[in-house]
Amino acid sequence: MPEVKVRLQQLVLIEQAAQQAMDIADRCNEPIIGIRADECLQTVRERIAEISKQGRL
Predict the structure, then answer these.
(1) Measured between alpha carbons, how far is 20 from 45 in angstroms, rounded to an integer?
(2) Residues 6+ apart with CB under 8 A from 45
(3) Which of 42, 34, 36 is nearest to 15 (CA)?
(4) In this predicted model, what pLDDT tens digit does every residue of 38-48 receive, in sequence order?
(5) Which pTM does this prediction carry?
(6) 8-state DSSP, 30
(7) What is the DSSP letter of 29?
């Protein structure tokens, strides 16, 4: 399904951005930003796994 592939690509970009935000927050010693980015990263990874496993949105 093309829409599944597109959504997974979008989620991968979000995952990368959340990881970068965590890395920056760690370097800047900003724990609140790091915690929020970590929560986002976990949620996105769970959604990627769910979509990949089910093959649908």
Answers:
(1) 14
(2) 15
(3) 42
(4) 999 999 999 99
(5) 0.85
(6) -
(7) T
